[in-house]
Design goal:
Rossmann fold, pyruvate-formate lyase- activating enzyme, OB fold (Dihydrolipoamide Acetyltransferase, E2P), 3 domains, five-stranded parallel beta sheet, five-stranded mixed barrel, 36% helix
Length: 417
Amino acid sequence: MKFFVETYGCTMNHGESAELSSYLRRAGHQQVEDEEQAEVAMINTCVVIAPTERKIHRRLKQLQSDGKRLVIVGCMASVDRGALIREFPEALVCGMTEHPVLPSILGKEFGAQDPLLQEAPSNGPLVLPIAQGCNGSCTYCITKLARGELDSYPLGELVERSKQAISQGVKEILITSQDTAAYGMDGNDRLPDLLKAICDLPGDFRVRVGMMNPDNLAEVLDDMIEAYQHLKVYRFLHLPVQSGSDRIIRDMGRAYSIKDYLGMVQRMRNAIPDLTIATDVITGFPGETDEDHQATVELMKRLRPNTINITRFSPRPGTVAETMDNQVTGHVSRERSREMTALRFQISSEINVSRIGREYSVLIDENGKNKSVIARTDDYMPVVIRGDHELWQRVTVKITAAARTHLFGVMVRNMEN
């Protein structure tokens, strides 16, 4: 059976798609990049915002009309399972509650074939989901309805997966979940314990920690500061604040204040030089006034994050926020999003320009456009290097120019020669 995979949404979805693809390949099925060659289309879905959901529905209809057998997995398959089955009766629809047994479901559905070739080892990156669900109660979040309560994967199994990947040449491990800071709150080991165990593995590799909610980072902050000081951990902190208004944050169901948030960031910055900060902001949350929005603008000016991920509020079915009073009109939310986007690029441009002339040790981890590659500094900033260069080598670059979202560099020397 020839199949192709299409993934929407977060890094965790991409990691889970990779796991399912690997299972099917090991069972002897052939993964193809050209959908016209495929008999089966596996679509890993997302429901965070309504526009993405509508886009996925259109894509599913197109693939069905093209005669593809559909396998629909992920969050949409959890929260909208009945509607998907009615609309696509020939599809295999599997929600997140079935994720632990999904390989066996795929095995029963498609069977095993004689392997074409032994699967070649991949040298990265490894996307490592560390838990299902979360322990939060954000009033706008439909993902909690899809993935459920926190269920952390055993530390030993995660370390073993990392060890095997490193032995095959992997140079990057991307740790991901709905909230990585919540890892282990349902057991004994916490995220700093997992990071230490992975970083203790031999080899030259880097670990990127995925999104952490401030509520849970506060509980392990001291240990996380220590973990981030390890040379193998990217100095990259993704810590969503969502709003600059304490009132809106409370209405969002999040248990921290702006003072708490700024205190955590300042402690991290004091301990970890050149820390890259990424944060998230929602514009147009129900009840958000012009004053609340301006508070968020002022917070971003004070915080000066490297990246601001901006989302316009999208009421999702079954969430508390869907039925809240004082819904903000779409055009107001869009205007606030535009203002925030302009500020985002102003801040990031200023930060990036300040790096021109500096030298960095970087890991080349992606092919770019127009005969270029993309490398990452140890604070996870992307650097574009012109020319054909081998992936997964460490080199030193000098920054020659800067854009709003990335840097440009020229190779000074190859660290591996």
